[in-house]
Task: inverse folding
């Protein structure tokens, strides 16, 4: 089974436009979708209220949630990223995402 980590950009885009091909991710067989609480919060902040927020919540009902933050002194690759990107990459690494 593939484990697909959804970052804030994917969550935002899927909620923003109903017609986006990204929505096919949410119905793919043998695929486990995973998102972090951090990514969801970032997507929420960038969506306007109302229908887009409701779509985001609806889509995320079928997505597993992980709440992990990178430990201090974690992988050296994290140190090269902007600080707000570190929790996203760390979450994807920690769940052993395939994509």
Result:
């Amino acid at each position: 089974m593939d484990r697909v980590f959804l970052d804030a950009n994917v969550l935002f885009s899927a909620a923003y436009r109903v017609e986006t091909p990204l929505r096919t991710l949410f119905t793919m067989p043998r695929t486990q979708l995973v998102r972090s609480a951090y990514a969801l919060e970032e997507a929420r902040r960038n969506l306007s209220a109302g229908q887009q927020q409701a779509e985001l919540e609806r889509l995320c009902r079928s997505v597993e949630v992980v709440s992990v933050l990178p430990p201090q002194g974690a992988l050296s690759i994290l140190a090269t990223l902007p600080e707000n990107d570190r929790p996203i990459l760390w979450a994807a690494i920690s769940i052993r995402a395939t994509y």
Q: What stands out?
A: Strands lie at 2-6, 31-36, 64-66. The mean pLDDT is 88.
